[in-house]
Amino acid sequence: MTAMGEVLPYRPPRAREETTAFLGMVVFLGSWAMMFAALFFAYGFVRTRSVAWPPPDLPGLPWETPAINTLVLAASSAAIQYGLRVIRQGASPKLGRALLLTVLLGAVFLALQVSVWTRLYVEGLRPETGGAYGSVFWGLTCFHALHVLVGLIGVGLLTRRAFAGAFSAAKYLPVRLWALYWHFVGAVWALMFVLVFLL
Amino acid sequence: MEAAGQMKIIVGIKQEIRASAVAAVLVLSNSALAAVQPESGLGLPRDASQNGHLVDWLMNITSVFNIILFTIMCVWMGWACLKHNRNHPAEYDPGSSKHSVTIALAVSAFIFAIVDGNLFVNSINDLDREYWNFEKVAANPKTVRLEINAHQWAWDARYAGPDGKFNTEDDIVTWNEIKVPVGAPIYVELTSTDVIHSFYLPNFRAKMDAIPGQVNRFWFQAKETGDYDIGCAQHCGTHHYKMKALLSVVSPEEYKTWAAEASALAKRAFDPEDTAAHWGWDWKEL
Amino acid sequence: MHAEAHPAGVHPEPTSFLRRYIFSTDHKVIAKQFLWAGLVFLAVGGSLAMMIRWQWAFPGRPVPLFGIFLSRSGGVITPATYQSIFTMHGLIMIFFAITPVMIGCFGNFTIPLMIGAQDMAFPKLNMLSFWTFVISLILITASFFVQLGTAAAGWTTYAPLSTQIGTPGAGQTLVVAAIFVTGAATIMGAINYVTTVIRLRSPGMTYMRMPLTVWGLWLTAILNVLFVPVLGAAALLLFLDRVFGTQFFIAGAAGVKGGGDPILFQHLFWIFGHPEVYILILPAWGFISDIIPFFARKPAYWYRGSVFAMVAVTVLSAVVYGHHMFLTGMNPLLGKGFMTLTLIISIPAEILFLNWLHTLWKGSNRFPSPMLFALGTVFVFGLGGLTGLYLGTIATDLYLHDTMWVVGHFHLTMAAAAFLGSFAAIYFWFPKMFGRRMNEGLAKLHFWTSAVFITLVFCGQLVAGYAGQQRRLYDPYQYTFLSHLLPLNRWTSYFAFALGISQFVFVYNFLSSLVAGEKAEQNPWQVGTLEWTLCPSPPPHYNYATPPVVIRGPHEFANPDVIKALGRDWIGQTEPMPKVAAAAIKPAAGGAKD
Is the Cβ of C200 closer than 8 Å to some Cβ of chain B? Predict the structure, then answer.
């Protein structure tokens, strides 16, 4: 007989489908990571070529609130991860509460971001007059905040479904996918905190 | 970094430049009734530079290689198509034997070594010895230094004048016309005030982008007198096609007389209030 | 999320017209949607090219036919209109013609069929990809009708010309937005392709048994996933600069503030842009690497070599982008590094060429239209590749950079080769897609006119570039050193018009074959890949009722055992070797493994 080749091992359709969806999400986030990588590259590029960063007549970026925000996002990532753990054991109401906590922490993050934006705007850091420094700050943080917002909407809808009992130990794929997305958004923020606010 | 600081001032003034630059140089542009000789045939434009033949040689030798390779490819393909047609039984050969693979790799490596190797070695040599050899140019006492500022859609050039310093009252500033002596290296620093342009001397095989916010450099040297086209090679807006200037290569004596005269005129016309006309920057020797 | 009764990637066949033909999730329907959109915009981009050629042949004279679009200037192309024309020609051809036809259409059509899948991994995402693409088409179309006209900063959209400083008006902004949106559509498609190939190959379809078409498209998808987001970032920052007044790409105006940098845009653009040129040619390489062995009736020569070469090019394409920026005053060491990497690309390219030529050699070559177009692709890509050597080398690039030589070079590679390669694919898969045959005589006429004129047009550009003519000149003859090139450019334009007119042969053939073409059999080309051996023409909704079990590579031709046992020179990828002959198979028949 000619060789049959490596026949792909048979898996139940649902497991196959879930792995496929998970892989798709990983590919998507890898792709999106390239976009953020490009944005960070842009930041590094203009920063290394500028004379003074921040320019003397513009306010420096605070690190305290963003540091708290990093913790907030880390906590919300932990919450959704906890939700993932409990739903694997079938605890649907617990999942709902974990997701609710995730959403609330995400909302706290956005609220704190708004406070940072307002403060800096009042202090004179505006997108149209801040030069490359202002552009980087506004461009990067707002673009990231948009992703948080998308995450909030997504996880918010999940929360509703979780309380309605839509997920079980056998069926929780959307939670897995959104958790991955949410970790990604958090990781990007952590990087942004270090590169943009601390350095 | 100092030059960068200077540059930012240049960029800030943008619009006013053209008007004042025109006023300052009007006297000098009268000789613009120049006669650039048209080219003929379909080959390269004539070479007026001292080192352009290096580029020409490298292109020509590569063309010879390419013609050979392309001919082999066409003959191979044509022969296979004509002779190994539907009446020819196909050979069952997946081409993955060690022998076939070795031949394929060896042929590729051979072509690469000859064609790309030649390009690589000569290009690096040409760059190190000529095109990017700014030490040689800087050390040459005959070198003429030029600052060029591009803007939509003209070229401003600035000569240091007798004091050898840029942005002083004896600077000669010209508009869309550059006069250089034959046989001396012309060392150019260039930038742009608005969008990206590219300074292009077809007869000298030279080209360099003029980019707002940064100063680029290149050099060329004429081997014979005459008038030549200067072009813009980077799309820079509606009138990109009209952004042409004149390079007139003259004898060293003629150049000296002209420079002295022009510098004296410039000194008389100098207006310390007209900051827009002082777009030059401190020369940054590499 | 998914109906319970259907396994992965499968959805029930819709019955309503809207779900079946408009908002369909069937990869074959989406492929056709992309094909139609791509062909329409190919015609638009081609018409713009004709206008450019008219201007270079007869500067300032009213344009015949298309003049009605220029009524305000009495049919004459003005300098301002001219820059919009060449900008939109480039953008439309790249993002809205070649990409949808090659990747959107043939990526969608061939990947699931050739790997034995029932559909894409994410059918809904696939549909979303097409409709996102439609949004970008609407944006790009709208940009023509706003005040100050559409984009005018060149397809490369170099800042600061593309910011409000150089190109005010809503047109350029809409186009930048369209680039971002079409990028999103491309990424959605690419995620689908990447995942589908990894997850949905049918049993036995190992990577080394995939048709080279799938390899080409898969590598393309990987490049798209990785580098289109970088273009997205560039478009996003440019959009912010234009709309919100940020200064990412505008050099600082005063010493006290850190300025943006126009060169940053070029970095971001070319980090994407160089992979993009391979994105536009890898699918064509894949098509012709399959079509040549199919019609040489001979196994693809050194299949693994072709795969490795394509993989090598994919990897290298990510690290050579600096050769687009040799003249931006980049660090000399960096420049030399990019030059070295660029030259190295010629090794895998040579291997591919040798494999194609070896496949033809000692074959039993037949020349139906797909084969002719494939050979034409090899011919023009040979020319394009060789002329690229001068541009990858800094010393010669000093002279040739931004001249018509560059234009000729990249048109030969990513326009002519992609064009002929796409038509090879269209003529080859048309019977499978629509269940009808195209008229072969007209197809051959289309080939000869297209191949001859396209070569002449782009070689004419090369000659103009060698003589020093810069790109994108409204009126090249303003320059004394170019004034003698009018006859050359005029002849090139005549060839271009002939090329344009000869496309009507295709339009007629395509449309008439759709409605009245001869019914196609299941396997008119007598080849062994899954879509021809197992699917009727056109394939049913699910493609395959059960996953096909693949036992060999895609190009098993001229196997003496097969000929002896079956009396034909090919065998399907799933077809077991007849018993009698199987016993006789010696290890020498290693082709079965490849």
Answer: no
**Per-domain residue ranges for chain B?**
17-38+142-277, 52-131
ipTM: 0.92
Q: What HEC string does C128-188 produce?
A: HHHHHHHHHHHHHHHHCCCCCCECCCCCCCCCCCCCCCCCCCHHHHHHHHHHHHHHHHHHH
**CB nearest A2 (choices: C1, C121, C551):** C551
Give the CA dihedral B252, B257, B259, B261, nearest 10 degrees: -170
| pLDDT confidence band for C580 (50 / 70 / 90) | low
Instruction: State chain A's mean pLDDT as an integer.
Output: 90
Task: Please write the tens of the pLDDT for every residue from B33-42.
Answer: 458 899 988 8
Q: Determine the pLDDT at residue C134.
A: 97
Interchain CB contact of B26 with C (< 8 Å): no
Q: Name the band, by pLDDT with cuts 50, 70 and 90, for residue B191.
A: very high
pLDDT tens sequence across C138-161? 999 999 999 888 999 999 999 889
Chain C residues in contact with B203 (beta carbon < 8 A) = 481
> Is C225 within 8 Å of A27 when comparing Cβ atoms?
yes
Question: Testing the interface with A: which of C226, C237, C257 to mutate, by most A Cβ within 10 A?
Answer: C257
Q: Using an 8 Å Cβ cutoff, are B118 and B62 in contact?
A: yes
pTM above 0.90, yes or no: yes
Distance of residue A29 Cα from the nearest chain C Cα, in angstroms: 10
Domain at B17-38+142-277: CATH architecture? Sandwich (2.60)
Per-residue tokens: A64: 């305290």
Beta strands B177-181 and B245-250: pairing type? parallel
pLDDT band per the 50, 70, 90 thresholds, residue C509: very high
B217 vs C: CB within 8 A? yes
User: Which one-letter amino acid corresponds to residue B3?
Assistant: A
Is residue A179 within 8 A of residue A84, CB to CB? The reply is yes
Whether the pLDDT of residue B30 is over 60: the answer is no
Contacts of C261 in chain A (CB under 8 A): 45-46, 49, 132
**Contact C122/A at CB under 8 A:** yes
CB within 8 Å of chain B, chain C residues 553-592? 557-560, 569, 589-591
Instruction: Measure the CA–CA gap between B170 and C269, rounded to whole angstroms.
Output: 42
Is the link from the previous residue into A182 a cis peptide, with omega within 30 of 0?
no
Give the residue carrying structure tokens 């190009």: C555
* Tokens coding A190: 């952590």
Cβ distance C190 to A31 less than 8 Å, yes or no, reads yes
The pLDDT of residue C593 is 39
With the C-alpha atoms ordered C158, C160, C164, C166, is the resulting torsion angle positive or negative? negative
Please report the pLDDT score of residue C519 as a whole number. 95
* Chain A residue closest in CA terms to C590: A2
Task: Find out whether C29 and C539 touch, Cβ atoms under 8 Å.
Answer: no
Cβ within 8 Å of A, C 515-554: 549-552
Query: b/e per residue, C250-263, with b = 16+ CB within 10 A?
Result: bbbbebebbbbbbb
Kindly tell me the burial class for residue C60, based on how many C-beta atoms sit within 10 Å of its own C-beta (0-12, 13-18, 19 or more): exposed
Size of interface B-C (CB pairs under 8 A): 316
